Amino acid sequence: MTGNGSDSEPSALVIGGGLAGIAAAGRLAESGWRVTLLEARTSLGGRAFSFADRESGVELDNGQHVIVGACRNLMEFLERIGVSDLWHVQPRLNVDVYDRAGRGGKLYGLGGPAPAHLLAAFITYRHLSLGDKLRAVRGVIAAMRANRSAPEMETTSFYDWLRAHGQSERCIYNLWNVIIEGTLNDNIRDVSAAMGLMITQDGLLQGRREINIGHPLVPLGQAIGAPCEAYLHDLGVRTLLGCPAHAVEASADGRVQRVVAGGGREWSADVYVSAAPFWVLPGLIPDRLAEQAPFNSLTGLRASPIVNVHLEYDRPVMDGDFCYFLDNPLQWVFNTSRIRGSDPRRDGQLLAVSISAAWDHIDLPRAELADRIAEEMRAAFPRARQARLVRSIVVKQRNATFRCTPGAQRMRPGPVTASPNLFLAGEWTDTGWPSTMEGAIISGYNAAAAVMSRFGAAPGTAEEKSGRPMV
């Protein structure tokens, strides 16, 4: 058995090296705890990672990761690990939206206070009729006034709420679902009104910068993985990669005593933070703990899939950084070459198609799915009809995000558990956010705050050296 602490130096063991586990480990280490982090993969970042394409050697992301200006904790975290310059956020919202016939519209923001910054976009948006534009304005006003914490908001869908507030089918799918589907990775019919209103109130209407879209300028391994490893190393965190946790062992009173990891190695600490996925955690802990709250509610949570298709063409077929397609399996198309600053005249053009709530695609054979997406690209981009598709790479993520369905909020636990020394982190915990990188960071901070609330900071250290508020 490997011990990690002493009477004068409290120790913590973090299970999982995604953003939630990294945030928890970093906060605890900054507050004087001796921290060990176990990660099953050979790199940090969890579901935000990149890999080298075997044929071309090009580093590709597992999926196109997007942030918005409202992700304040994530923005601060990126600054903390020294990579804020590797992420770009639009100075103002600017999204091209195309319908099946190729007609273009635009969602954009202007200066001025919210929600007036969106007024011009609503007036000029080509995918709504005049009547729908008036309905959309009434819907925005209703959303501004709504109490998303009311119990009924958690038991009804956002679609039903919008219909009850005068929104037409066209308005819902050509406007509201553009915002919701990519953010919550689910169809607007299937998300709770509470979470739909959260996205609307805190993102769309909170301020003119909150809805601005951002993305990494380099592969995620450079934008997240390697910098996080350096960040934890500098804090003295012992990071063990390729070391999956197999079992969490606890005494009869529920106190965790050790974690059994790969190779039969055992690790012990004073406190433990699990940042494992919600579908993995119940299989790690003893049955007697799994049957207690909050663990017994995790079986009610569900996950939603995302499919990404990377397409390499021999010449440019797309202008701009990204665009959205209505009523089209393409959904979001990102110009990876442009985002990364590659020269398409020399290198061809690399694009990424990101499909949220990909129920219709997740079980298709990769070759068939790639052919379908390539055909849709030829229909949507005239220049793709003359270009040669050099290669396509399909990345499937069956459990990409947890689903914010009506009633799901009741199943999201806080950081404290029935075990006196086991705490929870993960974007699926109760953060007030959907399944995003921002939610993951918040959950890690919440777990560290709960640990220090119960056990205190290490002797002789400030609980929060940087002066940044705990969330």
Write a structural description:
- It is a single chain.
- The protein is α/β, with parallel strands linked by helices.
- It folds into 3 domains: 11-47 and 219-299 and 406-455, FAD/NAD(P)-binding domain (3-Layer(bba) Sandwich), CATH 3.50.50; 91-211, Guanine Nucleotide Dissociation Inhibitor, domain 1, CATH 1.10.405; 303-402, Polyamine Oxidase, Chain A, domain 2, CATH 3.90.660.10.
- The protein is built from 15 helices and 20 strands.
- It has helices spanning 19-30, 72-80, 119-124, 130-145, 151-155, 158-164, 169-184, 193-204, 220-234, 281-284, 287-290, 336-340, 344-347, 366-380, 437-455, and strands spanning 11-15, 34-39, 50-52, 59-61, 67-68, 87-89, 94-98, 104-108, 213-216, 238-241, 245-250, 256-261, 266-267, 271-274, 303-313, 322-325, 332-335, 349-355, 389-402, 422-424.
- The strands form 5 sheets. A 7-stranded mixed β-sheet has the order 8-7-16-17-18-15-19, with helices on both faces. It has a 5-stranded parallel β-sheet with strand order 10-2-1-14-20, covered by helices on one side.
